[in-house]
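Task card 7
Instruction: Convert sequence to structure tokens.
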Amino acid sequence: MKTFSKQERLSSVKDIETLFKKGKSLFVFPLKVIFISSKTQQHTKEKEIISSPRLLISVSKRNFKRAVDRNRIKRQIREGYRLQKSEFDLSHIDTFAFVCVAKEHLDSAFLHKRIKRLLQMLEKEK
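Output:
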């Protein structure tokens, strides 16, 4: 199903801190992905079982001063992930984040290709 529901978004401050402290990373310009696999994640409290991993998208204010520019890139990344997530088995990933490191605007088609490449790399990280 090609949706991106609220349950798939990573919003807990504690989980975000854990992700950036303990997560592994992969890089394909212009995106860096930081992830925690289900095996390494310790659940201290019972959480809802979600079939797909939780995602955070980050665009640096240093590289894109205007909020409209940051929001546009986040929308492009979110759409690329939404359209392609069903093609990959990411059940072994608990949480992950896409961090955009580009300093200029990018074409959606280019971003979607890079997202696909990162999802392929994530799928192999079992």
